Structure formats: C-alpha cells, structure tokens
C-alpha cells in the first residue's frame, strides 16, 4: 500500500502553498489592523478625556466668575445708591436754611430769642422704669 500512495501525484502544490501564504498574510494584516485600531481608540480616548476635562474646568471657572460678577454688581449698586444719597446731602448742606435746621435738631443750637426744651424719648423712659 505504501507504494500506491507514493505513486499518487500531489496536485496543486503551488496552489496549496499560495493559499497558506495568503492565509498568513491575511492574519498579519488583521493583527496589524487590530493594533492600529487599538492605538487609534486609545488616542481618541486620551484626546476626548483631555477635552472633557478642559470643558469641565472652564465651566467651573465660568460659574465662579459669574458669581463674582454678581457680587461685584451688587456692591456697585450699593455704592451707587450711597453716592446718590451723599450727593443729595451735599446739595442740602449747601442750603443755609437746611444747615441751620439740622444744627438745631442734632446739636440743640438755637436762633436768637429761641429757647430749647429737651424732651426725653419714650424708649429711655421705659428703660428707667
């Protein structure tokens, strides 16, 4: 039997070797494709992480700046109101009649011929009793 087997010619030896080489070539390409895709996705993941982190940091900083802006605007409005009150006081203090009236009320100064009577406040009387 062994003689019969040896007599059978091997057909398509080149085709078989070509198919094996082609199979090896395809496996290598597939392996390289997987490596390239893995590297690409790692790169995309790193870039995405960096961008998301940057956006989050900028959003946090923006919120802090907006809070500061609100505080500063509130402070500005308060200062502006105080400035208006002070301007009104300046105009009032330039009037001699107002200055005289103010001095009589606050410092108990009197005009000629006036007598000032000091009347205690009710709150002071209640605390004494």
TrEMBL record:
Signal peptide start and end residues: none
Listed transmembrane segments: 37-56
Coiled coil region boundaries: 62-96
BP GO annotations: cell division
Keywords noted in UniProt: Coiled coil, Membrane, Transmembrane, Transmembrane helix
Protein name: Putative membrane protein
Organism: Caldibacillus thermoamylovorans
């Amino acid at each position: 039997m062994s003689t019969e087997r040896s007599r059978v010619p091997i057909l398509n030896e080149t085709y078989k070797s070509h198919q094996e080489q082609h199979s090896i070539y395809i496996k290598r390409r597939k392996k390289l494709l997987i490596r390239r895709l893995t590297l690409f996705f790692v790169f995309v993941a790193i870039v995405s992480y960096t961008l998301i982190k940057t956006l989050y940091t900028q959003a946090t900083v923006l919120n802090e700046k907006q809070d500061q802006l609100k505080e500063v605007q509130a402070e500005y409005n308060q200062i502006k109101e105080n400035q208006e009150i002070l301007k009104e006081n300046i105009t009032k203090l330039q009037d001699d009649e107002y200055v005289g009236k103010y001095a009589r009320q606050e410092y108990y100064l009197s005009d000629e011929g006036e007598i000032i009577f000091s009347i205690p406040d009710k709150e002071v009387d209640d605390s004494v009793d």
